[in-house]
Specification:
This protein is an alpha+beta fold and 394 residues long. The protein contains 13 helices and 8 strands. The protein has 2 domains: 14-232, Hypothetical protein, domain 2 (Endonuclease III, domain 1), CATH 1.10.340; 245-385, Nucleoside Triphosphate Pyrophosphohydrolase (Alpha-Beta Complex). The structure holds iron/sulfur cluster. The site of iron/sulfur cluster has 14 residues, from helix 9 and helix 12.
Length: 394
């Protein structure tokens, strides 16, 4: 590893900085590469299915979070063909918990397209034509799986490059320039290793806070480091947060088999095709006083203390949960179903809806799965009969 002979200098003239050498990063990678379950070891041939699957899972999710999902997903769908042939419910269920469910739908559609074609295409341009594959993922697959001279620019790489070149223009406006800077660095030899080396550098050395510059193979050419301004890059344009949305969720438990009333969300849009207990619309000005008009069926709904909060990419959500027990003779309204408690794990429930169910189980006398019904006095705030307002309610 290179060492800096002048570790305390702060304002080195930029013109004096050496150009970043891909070879220095590759040499560092050869010594410090992470051992990841989807990554080919030295001498092994990368498996395009594993590379593609990991890159889709890693979009906006951490390596630590993806590891167990990746292993389970591969155990369930060991080949691209097995994934392509699986029912969409099975794919969504295996994905549940990773968030961004449009990715799971695109993943399945992509598997079917590739299975029909016989193999993954091996160029960025052809990969871009597949569902769910954008510029970053196309570059990553082309470089890692097929050793193409392609750049894979994600948030980690943007951080490294904006520091390396002290890019003052804020993101996202600077994305084009950062991509061009990255492309100019990708070597003809070992482009796949170079892409993974950049990922590892961003994840382990050039971290958002307190980057370990003394261990960095590009310490000497790094302009931000020379100016002592590492943590001020990348510069970012101010973001406007989405407005808080509110709504009501209804957890109906059927007496006897303790099945839970669920429905499937529309196939496109937020949490598309995922399962959920019925909810109202989610609106900034949702009127909770009228929430029972949104109940899916007639029952003695009990408003539970507290709220369930969840932050989506573009807005935070606050749901007030209503719970009720209904008799076994009550039929599920049109488009809904009662799912036995033991089968809840098979439902593609997104994180927000798992929180709703956990809140209902924990905050009321509704039983935990498999437990006896034991109402807890004093924990219910409100009990009111309601009228069903929807077609199909019994
Ligand atoms: S020297 Fe520091 S800021 Fe510059 S690329 Fe390396 S770790 Fe990042």
């Amino acid at each position: 590893m290179e060492s800096d002979p002048e570790p305390n200098r702060l304002l080195r003239p930029m013109s004096a900085a050496p150009a970043p050498a891909p070879a220095a990063l590759l040499a560092w990678y050869d010594r410090h590469r992470r051992d990841l379950p989807w990554r080919a070891r030295p001498g092994e041939t990368p498996d395009a299915y594993r590379v593609w699957l990991s890159e889709i899972m890693l979009q906006q999710t951490t390596v630590a979070a993806v590891r167990p999902y990746f292993e389970r997903f591969l155990a369930r769908f060991p080949t691209l063909d097995s994934l392509a042939a699986a029912p969409s419910e099975a794919v969504m269920s295996a994905w549940a918990g990773l968030g961004y469910y449009s990715r799971a739908r695109n993943l399945h559609a992509c598997a079917q397209a590739v299975a029909a074609a016989g193999a993954f295409p091996d160029t960025e341009a052809e990969l871009r034509k597949l569902p769910g594959i954008g510029p970053y993922t196309a570059g990553a697959i082309a470089a890692i799986a097929f050793n193409r001279q392609a750049a894979a620019v994600d948030g980690n790489v943007e951080r490294v490059l904006t520091r390396l070149y002290a890019v003052g223009e804020p993101l996202p406006g600077a994305k084009g320039r950062v991509r061009a800077l990255t492309e100019a660095l990708v070597p003809a030899d070992r482009p796949g290793d170079f892409a993974q080396a950049l990922m590892d550098l961003g994840a382990t050395i050039c971290t958002p806070k307190r980057p370990a510059c003394a261990l960095c193979p590009w310490m000497r050419p790094c302009r931000a480091r020379a100016e002592g301004l590492q943590e001020t890059f990348p510069r970012k344009a101010p973001k406007s947060a989405g407005a808080l949305r509110r709504g009501a969720a209804f957890v109906a438990v059927r007496t006897g088999d303790e099945a839970i009333l669920l429905r499937t969300r529309p196939p496109s849009g937020l949490l598309g095709a995922m399962a959920e207990p019925p909810t109202s619309e989610w609106l900034p000005d949702y009127d909770l006083a009228r929430a029972l008009l949104d109940a899916p069926l007639e029952a003695r709904w009990q408003r539970l203390p507290g709220q369930v909060r969840h932050v989506f990419t573009h807005f935070p959500l606050e749901l007030t949960v209503f719970a009720a027990r209904v008799s076994k003779s009550v039929a599920a309204p049109d488009g809904m179903r009662f799912t036995p408690r033991a089968a809840l794990g098979e439902e593609p429930l997104p994180g927000a809806m798992k929180k709703v169910l956990a809140h209902a189980f924990a905050a009321t006398g509704l039983p935990e799965p498999g437990a006896a019904v034991r109402p807890r006095a004093g924990r219910r705030r409100e009990a009111a009969p309601t009228r069903a307002s929807r077609k199909g309610a019994p």
